[in-house]
Amino acid sequence: MAYLLGVDIGTSGTKTVLFDEHGNTVSSSLVEYPLYQPKAGWAEQSPEDWWNAVKTGIARAVAASGVDAADIAGVGLSGQMHGLVMLDRDNRVLRRSIIWCDQRTSAECELMNSLVGKEKLISITANPAMTGFTASKLLWVKNNEPEIYEKCAHVLLPKDYIRFMLTGEFAAEVSDGSGMQLMDVAGRCWSSELISLLGLDMGMLAPLYESVEITGRITPQVAAETGLKAGTPVVGGAGDQAAGGVGNGIVTPGAVSATIGTSGVVFAHTENMTVDPKGRVHTLCHAVPGCWHVMGVTQAAGLSLKWFRDNFCSPEMTAAELMGVDPYVLMDKEAARVAPGCDGLFYLPYLMGERTPHLDPNARGAFIGLSARHNRADMLRAVMEGVGYSMKDCLEIIRGMDVPVKEIRASGGGGKSPLWRQMMADMFGRTVVTTTSSEGPALGVAILAGAGTGVYSSVQQGCEVCIKRNTVQKHDRSAAAVYRRSYPVYKKLYKSLKSDFEKISNL
User: Fold this and answer.
1) Cys-Cys crosslink for 69: which of 195, 229, 335, 422, Cβ 3.0 to 4.6 Å?
2) Rounded CA gap, 251 and 77, in Å?
3) What is the pLDDT of residues 265-294, one digit of tens each?
4) Catalytic site residue 240?
């Protein structure tokens, strides 16, 4: 029996999971760390915190498993995307990492557009200039902390820093690298033209690999600290979204995932490079060699329901504590008593601005259509429907790019809700399934490690072995008809309010 280790370096903590070759969890560990916000809109973390969490997590998972380290065939790394890690010539960290949700770089995004041109930037990187992406962060350091930039010898993403610490090798891979906004995404390589136009140094970037390629091996020192065997292969791995896609089985045409976490992500596999010229969805390299993925993002998906729970659902929270159940279970039952469409009540889930399809940081959340007939249960269901409509926005753009959509796989905390899954089936007009996998990115990179070390013949074969359907929900025709009538109204609401959102943001 071969075993595979998946390490997912997230924002709140690092999840380390040891799987057997059939995708069953053998042991796992979660180690958390802080987020630093020195100014409004800034978000930073310490790479050393990630490294300590990885060392601790691997040691715990290996020790708890009872597995002979020699039977661990490979290690896969997943990580939060876009984070900027800078090392000097002695491989020391120069500053805390500026991570994915940091918003300080709006001026640098404008600079990128002026130096490169908006259309040309999208044609090379498949995405518009984004404050969350790595290139604008590197430019920010160059412009605002020149003394640090001058000392920089290596620019890495979070998981690639961990790779260096595990193996002593500098390497990047295409799925995470394409989120740096420094790659020719169609060519799956660094763009020397773009990097030159931005005035950056290509020599700072690590060599690029496909996600299944072996990029290094565990060093003797790390082996002594973690319980792994020295020489254990470490594959390229993937950014967290591509890793989650593999962990959900989104590795063939027609497979699409709808993940409701804090944000909502609609993620589709494609074997052909396709780009939305308006930049409303992201096109990035997939972790499947030679393939890409298209991804739409709703900023406040599960966050909207959590906000409603925390502010309006004290009775459910109290009852849930007494009953020993999750408050969301009771909220689901309450929302299920309301008919689809909520009697004309709409919710716009723009609590954190919006990315897809509007790319508008000024957008605001709103209930529209309230009447004396409505009650708290109507508002609760409207929140869930509003998130569903927003994710349908993502799906409609993906469909319009000629990406095939045959089946939706639901995941994330919101994917555990039978009601929310049924709403998505009814709104999308597609069957919605869940899988037996609950480890997402960690399982995804374990499968990549298996494909890279010969445990599986391919990523697709690894997914066939490890991932099975769990629940299946088909769309209800009567509910689907309600949503078909209501969705055009929902779409018009943002357009009607856009200028007002901008005025409100300036108050």
Assistant:
1) 229
2) 18
3) 999 999 999 999 888 999 999 999 999 999
4) yes
